[in-house]
Amino acid sequence: MIIGCSGQKNKYSSKSEDLYCSARFLAAKAIAKHIGSERRILSAKHGLIRNSEIVEPYDLSILELSPDDHIAWAKENAQRILKLTKDVDHIVYIGDELYFAEIKKILEKKRNNIFLPLGNVDKKNSVSWLNSWLETQKNLDRVYSLIASYSNNSHLRLRDFSDLRKKNDCPESGVYIFFDKTAKRIFHPEQIRISRIGTHAVSEGSIASLWQRLMTHKGTQDGYGNHRGSIFRSHIGSSIISKNVIDLPSWGSTVMPNVSIREKEMQIEKSVSEYINNNFSVLCINVPGNPSKANDRAYVERNLIALFSSCLHFADPPQTTWLGYCSTNQVIRMSGLWNVNHTSEYVCDQFLEILEKYLAFSSSSTQIIAYNLAPTNWSHNMKMSQQQKTFF
Q1: What is the model's pTM?
Q2: 8 Å CB contact between 102 and 80
């Protein structure tokens, strides 16, 4: 992670990460420390420097460099960054875009994994946005920790998708979480990333079961499937088609094509099933309750999507190998999820506590849980939050 310097500095020699003292710099440093990412400081005077390097106070802005000196400075530091990150999946810069614009032009000729989290954030909102990002990172880490803590027994455990074979492999009602082996966490590459969240029976009168929903996503026993019955399969297939530049405009259409086109679709259906069964594992959280658009399954699903989506914040994007980056759907590319709905909502305040209760319930054969743990009017409050979106 590269943090841009600031005009506000202490008046004594110190480590570079202690020299700069603007609120934006301090917020960025807090994020880097929490993530545990190796970090460098980008300075107008010293260029790219280690966070532990001792630096004297100085007064120089990139605006004071001549155009030629600015280009030379950018070229030198771009080469430093390329050398430093040759074995790293991504480059993240937090700071004034003016300092990084010329560097980014050079980097983009060799790398396509450059992230500027503050790129679409108004400067006056940058500090609050960074503080929100830090809080999001802490919440994400807590969810992964909770899942690891509770999913270690026969009642609640992570299963390879290909191992789902019978109904009692999952609860009758619940929320599913898909982990994609090809999508490691960008800041924690040792961890497989959550890439889709879903549920069932969130409308009055619905009789769909969790098992039925999972099997629709998984595909048929002969290795094919029906993307018209699974939006998840449709998204995966669209990305495969886009990645491999396949001409198949009928994919995703609600109109059933003729036999010859359907034969072409079946090859993609087979590729989708192979991708899902080879790369995905699933965790099923037991969330009982009657069918309703505001039941606790809907509450858990929507809050998990809101938390893991990068549409409102640079949450936890997947590494650049993720198939979803080939999607023609901008929301999928931006959110880092195989989800489209609820990706621009905010997380309810009590959500993590309620999620933990359902994880504990799911991991126990004796624990009893009351229905409807979600607060009253939670759905209305999430919708209001969506209308108040400010960052992207």
Answers
A1: 0.90
A2: no
